[in-house]
């Protein structure tokens, strides 16, 4: 690409960065800056450099997974020396070979997860700090171990299955490669289930709450204020992190909040203001006439046939004139899908024949069970959207 294009992109980045610093957190400008930075990188790289960067991503992830295993990031964070921590000290504290530490930490510094301005010495940055928080310390090992064995075999799975789009949970790529799809595998691996739960509750840190993007007054107005009435059921709500936030930050909601998930997930949950009930969404919904049935990051785990079943199980419990379904998931744009979302789609395909959906795919899925979309709310590119759906009015 020409120098003019590079300078043009740099100018656009400058403009959007200024907008971002003046705009709301998690807004459109932030996503735009990230997109422009990716474009700038592509503009600067030669085609060969781009391909080499892609080819060498897997060893970076493997090195990161190993460094997380060795708990090197907490060591960097606890260093009292302003100069940082030496490879010799890290080797002593972890028991790993010093030569291995040097090779692994070279990768960490190149990924920006620490700095290394003098040979064999590593200093913590704010990214190092994130690697000691649940998003990094739990998310990295959980997602690596859950997905990598399948992703490494995905091309073979697709070749052997004649490149049919995976649409059956029972024969998903993960089931073929590992013997189980994601939720069975997690249920049988307590350590990873715990990492998964922790990662679930941490991965939206710093992003706006769904109820500050979606006008929650739409649910509050007209909701029953009877103390027994259920205001919102969070179905597949994991350990109740979303409900806890609603309870703490929007105490004006009327009625009760109910958390539902599989028994092994919610048995230990104890959160003020939140009731819980063990429930599989593959069965009919036992809580009738709630104001809202809320599903966050649920439907992307599943192919259409199973989503259809989950939705019908929910519709059967709804009062069509009162209840609403709230879905928080990605709504993929028709062009220029952000990298994270398009990659997540392949991950969902791999571990359970799931899918990230475009607006038309959502419209079709919901219409197939007699639901219509009232509105879709979003703060911008790269963020989850909030879809409100209701049963189609019976005009007969
Ligand atoms: C991707 S996580 C989303 C968790 C949470 N809603 C969030 O957005 O952070 C999917 C959740 O669905 C739950 N789940 C899986 N199968 C389920 C089933 N049959 N019935 C109820 N929950 C289920 C999992 O235990 C997990 O908590």
CATH-defined fold name of the largest domain: Rossmann fold
Please tell me the CATH architecture of the largest domain by its name: 3-Layer(aba) Sandwich
CATH domain class of the largest domain: Alpha Beta
Global morphology = globular
Number of DSSP strands? 12
Helix tally? Answer: 20
Largest sheet: 7 strands, mixed
The domain count comes to: 4
Which consecutive residue ranges, at least 5 long each, have pLDDT under 50?
Answer: none
Report how far the terminal alpha carbons are from each other: 60 Å
Give the strand order, joined by hyphens, for the main sheet.
6-5-4-7-8-12-11
Mean of pLDDT? 94
Ligands in the model, by name, code or SMILES, are:
S-adenosylmethionine
Strand content: 5-15%
The CATH homology group name of the largest domain = Vaccinia Virus protein VP39
Class from secondary-structure proportions: alpha/beta
Q: Helicity, in percent?
A: 40-55%
Radius of gyration: 23 Å
Keywords, separated by commas or semicolons:
396 residues, alpha/beta, Arc Repressor Mutant, subunit A, seven-stranded mixed sheet, three-stranded antiparallel sheet, 20 helices, 12 strands, globular, binds S-adenosylmethionine
Task: Please describe what this structure looks like.
This is O-methyltransferase domain-containing protein. GO terms for molecular function: O-methyltransferase activity; protein dimerization activity. Residues 225-371 form the O-methyltransferase C-terminal domain. It comes from Penicillium argentinense. The protein has 396 residues and is an alpha/beta fold. It has four domains: 3-55; 70-131, Arc Repressor Mutant, subunit A (Orthogonal Bundle), CATH 1.10.10.10; 139-202, no CATH class; 210-391, Vaccinia Virus protein VP39 (Rossmann fold). The protein contains 20 helices and twelve strands. A seven-stranded mixed sheet has the order 6-5-4-7-8-12-11. Helix 4 packs across helix 9. The mean pLDDT is 94. The protein binds S-adenosylmethionine.
